[in-house]
């Protein structure tokens, strides 16, 4: 079976079709419920007399409104993703977004009133048994209390953001999406898009990699004046808003978003930085694997071994077996995705690229989209997305909507854990050194790209934010900063390309969300530590792990760690993840 032909999902568990009457009915119902909600609760939440029973009912009521909105929107989104040329899905999606924003506006008062509940009352509410499952959700929301502005000011910010911050983000997206990267491919000058040119960085043709790299950085260099200006505007906007709200540390908003403390993130980033030498050790080893004296910038993503072709049925077996070896119940859940058509893996024209798992509602099963292209990487993608899927299934058993999704830094727990199960199984069973090499290098580069490199991004971002308080950063200055931090990461293991310091200009996260990237490092390193627990404890680990998944987004990361016997505030825990990395490098060294 080529490219997962015929592996399609069945979405009738949501609605029969885009023309299903029930879609409109559900949307109407959501509107009515939102109106009723406002009538019933406006002015009643921010009150000394608020009881746990009333707040619990309010939370359940708002979950009902959100559920209907999510169900309708998910259906149109999934229909659109399977075929982006589907105009009916597109127009339904747009319509639902518009209607959704109106419903959302009616509910805004609720969160604002939650911030205004008198302290004493709030304390007794979160300590009540009745609200136990919402406790940390409420506590995290309350962190905004000291930073809240008046309703008028909040409204003005919202309005001014449309032509200010959001317009700049939009400009960045449209501007960079218009970039063409001229490059000679097979004797002809072509102009691939950004994602196509980035894909060429992993080509096994070294000269092609070099040409792709040259073209990529030429284009970003030529456009860096505009991008530097947008970047300056955005970080200044953030600084000024923080100042107005009385937020001293510009990273505070990210800590609240992720429900973590500054100390925790500082510890994590410190440990990652201490382990930079491991990154350098690996890339020196990689030079040897590629028969090079030293890597150039354009060799960093080069493949270390030949591609192997893996038909879908074989890939599926590999994934199911990796999970089943870990735990029978896990395996059964993974199989349901295939047997009950919860996954769409076939490659079709106009289908959305990439992969995702949509955890829709706690009472429904998730839906997974992937584009299976018969490569080893695609097998890992399936293992990754089904990891999310199993996470959603467990969380759905216990949680209600508001606490269903894990916080950002833990969102990748089950997906990365699943990739590690597959990695270990493939290493153990690999029948050729080529395959083993490929799996080891893949895992190592994954860790270095999501942990070490992402932390480097945040270090750069932090310094840029600091300087921008005093003056505008020129494109040269930004590039110099980038060179400093990237140079620290790779040391003398990679020769930097003369123009690669323009890389700051292409990191989308810097432009659409401040200090996002440490979340990747957190997630990956957390799982490496978790995996070590599994290797140490064996079967005893499994029930604890299932509880962790069932907790969904109920607890902040520090408590999730504590519940499974991990103290996230200790540097030792984070260092432990790198011990696993060290072992992989040792193994790879033996093969080299
Ligand atoms: Zn993921």
Automatic annotation (TrEMBL):
Residue ranges of every copy of the Peptidase M3A/M3B catalytic domain listed in the record: 200-575
UniProt keyword list: Hydrolase, Metal-binding, Metalloprotease, Protease, Zinc
Cofactor binding annotation: Binds 1 zinc ion.
Pfam families, A to Z: Peptidase_M3, Peptidase_M3_N
GO molecular function: metal ion binding; metalloendopeptidase activity
UniProt keyword annotation of Protein biosynthesis present: no
Residue ranges occupied by any Oligopeptidase F N-terminal domain in the UniProt entry: 113-181
Cofactor(s) needed: Zn(2+)
GO biological process, one term: proteolysis
Similarity comment: family membership: Belongs to the peptidase M3 family.
NCBIfam families named in the record: M3_fam_3
Record-given protein name: Oligoendopeptidase F
Native species: candidate division WOR-3 bacterium JGI_Cruoil_03_44_89
């Amino acid at each position: 079976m080529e490219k997962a032909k015929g592996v399609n999902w069945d979405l009738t568990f949501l609605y029969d079709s885009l023309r299903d009457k029930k879609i409109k009915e559900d949307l109407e119902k959501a509107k009515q419920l939102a109106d009723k909600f406002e009538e019933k609760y406006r002015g009643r939440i921010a009150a000394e007399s608020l009881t746990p029973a009333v707040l619990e009912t309010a939370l359940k009521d708002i979950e009902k409104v959100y559920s209907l909105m999510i169900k309708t929107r998910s259906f149109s989104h999934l229909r659109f993703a399977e075929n982006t040329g589907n105009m009916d899905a597109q127009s339904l999606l747009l319509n639902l977004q518009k209607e959704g924003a109106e419903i959302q506006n009616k509910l805004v008062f609720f969160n604002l009133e939650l911030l205004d509940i008198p302290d004493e009352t709030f304390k007794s509410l979160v300590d009540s048994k009745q609200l136990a499952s919402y406790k940390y959700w409420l506590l995290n929301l309350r962190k905004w209390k000291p930073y809240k502005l008046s309703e008028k000011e909040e409204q003005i910010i919202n309005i001014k953001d449309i032509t200010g911050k959001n317009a700049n983000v939009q400009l960045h997206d449209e501007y960079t999406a218009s970039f063409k990267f001229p490059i000679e491919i097979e004797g002809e000058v072509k102009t691939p898009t950004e994602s196509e040119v980035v894909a060429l960085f992993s080509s096994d043709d070294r000269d092609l990699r070099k040409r792709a790299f040259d073209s990529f950085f030429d284009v970003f260099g030529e456009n860096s004046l505009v991008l530097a200006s947008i970047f300056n505007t955005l970080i200044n906007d953030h600084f000024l808003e923080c100042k107005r709200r009385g937020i001293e540390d510009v990273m505070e908003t990210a800590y609240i978003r992720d429900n973590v403390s500054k100390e925790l993130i500082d510890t994590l980033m410190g440990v990652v930085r201490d382990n930079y030498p491991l990154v350098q050790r690996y890339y020196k080893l990689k030079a040897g694997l590629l028969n090079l004296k030293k890597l150039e910038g354009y060799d960093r993503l080069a493949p270390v071994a030949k591609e192997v072709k893996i038909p879908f049925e074989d890939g599926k077996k590999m994934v199911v077996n990796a999970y089943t070896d870990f735990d029978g119940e896990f395996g059964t859940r993974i199989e349901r995705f295939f047997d009950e058509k919860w996954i769409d893996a076939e490659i079709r024209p106009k289908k959305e690229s990439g992969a995702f798992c949509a955890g829709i509602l706690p009472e429904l099963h998730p839906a997974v989209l992937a584009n299976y292209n018969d490569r080893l990487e695609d097998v890992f993608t399936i293992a990754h997305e089904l990891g999310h899927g199993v996470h959603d299934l467990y969380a759905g058993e216990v949680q209600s909507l508001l606490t269903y999704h894990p916080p950002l830094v833990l969102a990748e727990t089950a997906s990365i854990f699943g990739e590690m199960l597959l990695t270990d199984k493939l290493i153990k069973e690999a029948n050729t050194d080529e395959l083993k090499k490929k799996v080891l290098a893949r895992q190592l580069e994954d860790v270095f790209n999501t942990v070490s490199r992402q932390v480097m991004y945040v270090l750069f971002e932090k310094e840029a934010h600091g300087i921008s308080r005093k003056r505008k950063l020129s494109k040269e200055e930004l590039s110099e900063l980038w060179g400093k931090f990237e140079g620290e990461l790779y040391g003398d293991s990679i020769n930097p390309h003369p123009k690669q310091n323009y890389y700051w200009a292409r990191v989308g996260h810097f432009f659409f969300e401040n200090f996002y990237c440490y979340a990747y490092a957190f997630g990956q390193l957390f799982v490496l530590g978790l995996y070590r627990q599994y290797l140490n404890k064996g079967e005893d680990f499994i029930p604890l792990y299932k509880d962790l998944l069932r907790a969904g987004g109920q607890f902040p990361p520090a408590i999730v760690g504590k519940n499974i016997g991990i103290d996230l505030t200790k540097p030792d825990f984070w260092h432990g993840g790198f011990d696993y990395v060290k072992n992989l490098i040792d193994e790879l060294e033996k093969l080299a």
